[in-house]
Amino acid sequence: MMTDRKGQVEFPIRTIDSYLDDTVKNYAHRPAIYFMGKSTSYGELGDLVERSAGALQAMGVKKGDRIGLCLPNTPYYTIFYFAIMKIGGTVVNFNPLYVERELAFQARDSGARIMVTMDVSVIYDRVEAVRQEGALDNIIVCPMADILPQPKKLLFQLFKQKDVSDIPADKAHIRFNDFLAKSKGITPVEIEPKQDVAILQYTGGTTGVPKGAMLTHYNITSNMEMLESHYGGLKRGYEKTLCVLPFFHVFAMTVLQNLSILGAAEMLLMPRFDLKELLDLAAKKKPTLFAAVPTLYTAINNSELTRKYDLTSIRYCMSGGAPLPVEVKQKFEALTGCVLVEGYGLTESSPVASANPMDGTGKDGSIGLVMPGTTVEFRDLEDLDKTVERGEKGELCITGPQVMKGYWNRPDETAKTLEDGRVLHTGDVGYMDDDGFIFLVDRIKDLIICSGYNVYPRVIEEALYQHEAVAEVIVIAIPDQYRGQAPKAFVKLKDGQSVTAEQLKDFLKGHISKIEMPKAIEFRDELPKTMVGKLSKKELVEEEAAKTRSTEYAN
Fold this sequence. Notes:
Blueprint (H helix, E strand, L loop, with lengths): L1 E2 L5 E2 L5 H11 L4 E5 L2 E4 H17 L7 E5 L4 H12 L3 E4 L6 H11 L3 E5 L2 H12 L5 E5 L9 H8 L13 E3 H6 L15 E7 L7 E6 H15 L8 E4 L6 H13 L3 E4 L5 H11 L3 E4 L1 H9 L13 E4 L6 H11 L3 E6 L6 E4 L13 E2 L4 E5 L14 E6 L6 E2 L3 H7 E2 L3 E10 L5 E6 L4 E3 L2 E3 L1 H9 L4 E11 L3 E10 L7 H8 L11 E4 L14 H17 L1
Parallel strand pairs: 3-13, 5-6, 5-7, 6-10, 7-8, 8-9, 12-13, 12-14, 14-15, 15-16, 28-29
Antiparallel strand pairs: 1-2, 3-4, 10-11, 11-21, 16-17, 17-18, 19-20, 20-23, 22-23, 23-24, 25-26, 27-28
Helix pairs in contact: 1-2, 1-3, 2-3, 4-5, 8-9, 11-12
């Protein structure tokens, strides 16, 4: 990485797979993946990627073809991810928890005709249903048993066979071992890192029709380089990364998998989140790096089980994907002794745009400083052509090499989000303080207008998190005859805790203004979450809208 006299940062113009090539060359004997007791070295990983890339070409895959990955965190994901990159293909990430309708939409929209998935029934059966309705041509089926060590492999075959689908013996289905046997070496492909799309990462499903963000090789690799520079103290060939966030999510893909490949770290893969399994794995393998979403940190904080484990091996800990409540950050740090920093990004920025310093000198409630090579500005909410002064609230806009090329086959949506093809309008409202730290107030679409005043749900949520009984909270707008809109809070309490709505309102009087006070507080046993564990407002907004329609109809 080079810096010119103006302080602008330039990053190497490289393909994503070239980083794996370097690590395989220099750290072939270093463990790359640890999965449920079985280790794979970088040399072995590199060989599997080469063979898989050759096999894809033998199937007829060409540069620019889109290949779907519908996989949990397993060695297969990393193998196919880099194999597709190596031959100039485009990875289309599919959430294995999607229902058939969602899988079919994304397959058709992306034009992915080949899907890679597991033989586990809960995933395979839905993918096969999508193929049968004509949205896919081929399925490459990866067996779960083959990536397990003995005796887990034998136990899986004996007792879990009912969870494995029968795979038809036809041309549409290709078993992984048969697939590898077709490989006859790789025909080199010329890739232009700044132009060629490496990833179609779908986003926007909670607010409208999902859109495929086109992320080029350079978008991703520049973000990898930014992150290594930001971390500062990473030791190549030494780190161990605890990977429970799913790689199909852009945060985990870049911050966990790709940064690990760059630094020759050992990836400790978990196919799903289970707190005891996570803690057991951490105790056994002593990870040094960890990244997760706030709800996962909340689960760790609130479990008595956590106190029985030593997590002090973790040196660097990052939170992303959603705002990190200050109370959650402070409690996690007190429990583990590890500094937890909040970062910020979007799918459209590959994803990281800012983060707090890893040395603990960040500011609570801030999303940190901008990444190297990245610039931000805040636009006037009434006139987006104007910027506001430092310290004033505005829409956060990002410019940098990690900003996407655009949305797949959606020029109108691209034009709305990307100004002049380079300035990313985030839809987030915030400001920058005198030290360069960025603070977000809320999403433009989540803004509540109360009697003409702007009320930001995040301010109320942060205040509620400071109450010792509150585990999770979501604040949304509801109609109000007098004020137009008013805030309503949905609260999940910690186990064994009790508090009334009036007691919470009394508590809030010392933390927020009168105009920000929730009109109602509703307690829930669980709050809705997205498939990667982020709290989701969509369902609650729809519930309240249905109540309003019902009342209007009755009247």
